[in-house]
Write a structure and sequence with these properties.
This protein is an alpha/beta fold. The chain has three domains: about 170 residues, NAD(P)-binding Rossmann-like Domain (Rossmann fold, 3-Layer(aba) Sandwich); about 160 residues, 2-Layer Sandwich (Dihydrodipicolinate Reductase, domain 2), CATH 3.30.360.10; about 80 residues, Alpha-Beta Plaits (2-Layer Sandwich). The chain is built from 15 helices and 17 strands. Strands 7, 8, 9, 10, 11, 12, 13, 14, 15, 16 and 17 form an eleven-stranded mixed sheet that branches. A six-stranded parallel sheet has the order 3-2-1-4-5-6, sandwiched between helices. Strand 14 and strand 15 form a beta hairpin. Helix 1 crosses helix 13, helix 5 packs parallel to helix 6 and helix 6 runs parallel beside helix 11. The longest helix is centred in the first third of the chain and has 18 residues. The radius of gyration is 24 Å and the shape is elongated.
């Protein structure tokens, strides 16, 4: 190569960091051919440097990540330690030092990306974050560059492998939520504390990023409506299939005339839809754009090598752009910074969807009529009803209702009134329905 090699510093030698070291070494020649120069891993930082030095002989490994960030020889810092702090401080310090940054940290980008990108723009450096969403799926590049000619109308995605695995196991094997989650943990698909996954926080971080680059709006993690999956039962999955649907933990974003809606929650999806058939730990994102139509991006959403693939691809892009005028680089959030539109984020009460409802009702005349009367008063029309015969001697029956589209605020009022009826017991189960049409 005629150009000088580019030296990089790596923060974090965990699962993904180890994958990056492996990919850089295994594919060094191919990477250099694509980047136009050699990319060298100069030094790294890890929590247990002595242990990591034994695993990676010949690599300079520090216990202090700031030593890597402050090394004048390092041109690009790869941040893979995760979390908000000290990751935020390290990234801002790298930027202040005039270094480019590659990160897989979705929480950092979703919650502090506006600050980080402003600092990077002022310093004339790049922050690349393809690996923050979808693991090895190049969804950021696809939306930011491949669909740049399009007006994007909406996007929907299965963007958390843990919840998708749990729901898949529950449907395929009839397992309880607890049993499916325990299996995910045993297989390494879920953390010992899976809260961020099962409550939807991880997916909300990713949706924040996708919505921003799709619609040219600021990153607004605090405006994403978020629900988890712990309330889903085997009965719900079975009833959904009877109605021609599957339940998935969906991230959905749409820009309409009144603003941008961003929501993460379980949803019934028609079983003929491509997203409904994404199972196990796989991720997929469906994007609806005006010129190209609907496109689907599918692949592994996590793992050492898939995520390392995205990290190293970002490294190659950064190295290619080192000699480029900063004003001519691809904008961080797809749109030029001066063109970011501060469109309002819609409250969930303003969102309109169809609904699946499961109620525990007394098996006696008049109860179903009272339920339908309340729905009618809120102008909620019913598409389908399933009422199973109760077991011998049982006084209660499950009533399943599928409604047409209605605003969330109306459904909330209706459910409050229904749950107050003498013949209805316990809170209703409510799952939104998305046809993705």
């Amino acid at each position: 190569m005629s150009l000088e090699p580019v030296d990089i510093g790596l923060l974090g030698l965990g699962t993904v960091g180890g994958g990056v070291v492996h990919v850089l070494a295994r594919n060094a020649r191919e990477i250099a051919r694509r980047a136009g120069r050699e990319i060298r891993l100069l030094r790294a930082a890890a929590r247990d440097p002595a242990k990591r030095r034994a695993e990676y002989p010949g690599l300079t490994i520090d216990g202090d990540p700031f030593a890597v960030v402050d090394d004048p020889r390092v041109a690009v810092v790869v941040e893979l330690i995760g979390g908000l702090e000290p990751a935020r401080e390290l990234v801002l310090r790298a930027i202040a030092n005039g270094k480019h940054v590659v990160t897989a940290n979705k929480a950092l980008i979703a919650q502090h990306g506006n600050e980080i990108f402003a600092a990077a723009e002022a310093r004339g450096v790049t922050v690349a974050f393809e690996a923050a969403v979808g693991g090895g799926i190049p969804i950021i590049k696809a939306i930011r560059e491949g669909l740049a000619a399009n007006h994007i109308e909406w996007l929907a995605g299965i963007i958390n492998g843990t919840t998708n695995f749990v729901l898949s196991r529950m449907r395929e094997r009839g397992e309880s939520f607890a049993a499916a989650l325990a299996e995910a943990q045993a297989l390494g698909y879920a953390e010992a504390d899976p809260t961020f996954d099962i409550e939807g926080v991880d997916a909300a971080h990713k949706l924040t990023i996708l919505a921003s680059i799709a619609f040219g709006v600021p990153l607004r993690f605090d405006r994403v409506y978020t629900e988890g999956v712990a309330q889903i039962t085997e009965d719900d999955l079975r009833y959904a299939e009877t109605l021609g649907y599957r339940i998935k933990h969906l991230g959905f974003a749409r820009r309409g005339p009144d603003g941008v809606e961003m929501r993460v929650h379980p949803a019934l999806i028609p079983d003929r839809c491509l997203l409904a058939n994404v199972d196990g730990v796989m991720n997929a994102v469906l994007v609806k754009a005006d010129a190209v139509g609907t496109t689907l991006y599918y692949g592994p959403g996590a793992g050492a090598l898939p995520t390392a693939s995205a990290v190293v691809a970002d490294l190659i892009d950064v190295v290619r752009s080192l000699t480029t005028d900063p004003t001519n680089r691809v904008p961080h959030l797809a749109f030029q910074p001066s063109a970011i539109d501060d469109a309002p984020a819609l409250d969930i009460d303003a969102v309109e969807t169809a609904y699946y409802l499961r109620l525990s009702a007394e098996d006696r005349p008049g109860v179903l009529a009272a339920i339908t009367q309340i729905l009618g008063a809120e102008e909620i029309s019913i598409e389908a009803v399933i009422q199973k015969e109760p077991p011998a001697g049982a006084a209660r029956v499950s009533v399943i209702l599928l409604t047409h589209r209605v605003r969330e605020a109306r459904m909330r009022r209706a459910l409050s009134a229904i749950e107050a009826l003498d013949g209805v017991h316990g809170p209703a189960t409510r799952i939104r329905v998305e046809t993705l049409a």
